[in-house]
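Sample 3 of the quickstart, ligand adenosine-5'-diphosphate:
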Amino acid sequence: EKVYKTNKHIFLCRGKWEKYMVIAVYPGSFDPITNGHLDIIKRAAQIFDEVVVAVGNNPDKNTLFSDKERVELIKKSVFDIKNVAVTEYSGLTANFVKSQGTNLIIRGTRDSRDFVFEKEIANLNSLLDNQIETLLIFANKDYELISSSMVKEIIRFDGDVSKFVPKPVLSALKVKVKHEKNKKIY
Ligand code: ADP
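Result:
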């Protein structure tokens, strides 16, 4: 079995103190990443040894950005945080989480609607694999109104979303929406 060791987390394991690396997976659509997501990533990176941001490939979801674009935008937004990795995944989240050498999922929670939804997914994931643990992190008050869908709606109506998304996302959104509008005209 793989054992990760760092100086950060020390656990009592079968009567012996051991140092383990605690890895948390933050799965989501991130279409695109917002300042709300980024805040969760930054806070998680201070708690856990490594945070794996995992962009879900859900064929049922019609996303504005492709999987690759969403991964790239997150990478550009977290380039200065050392212990964050970004990757895409497909298939069951529970299986992906295990493949990363951990059983820990983190998700953000803005309000009671998020809470009910997150509780359902967390229960479903632990039904699929009872070792999976989900930890919820409350949204920062400054970002709790931000959602990817709200950002997309505002930009499509030429509104200003510069306060809601990281810089690389802002320019990518402008290009994408311009492209979308051109496609509709012709
Ligand atoms: P989903 O994975 O459900 O399609 P998202 O990709 O938008 O949704 O979000 C991924 C996770 O981040 C979810 O747990 C969601 O509740 C959380 N989240 C979304 N927006 C914010 C925000 N502004 N602040 C904190 N957490 C957020």
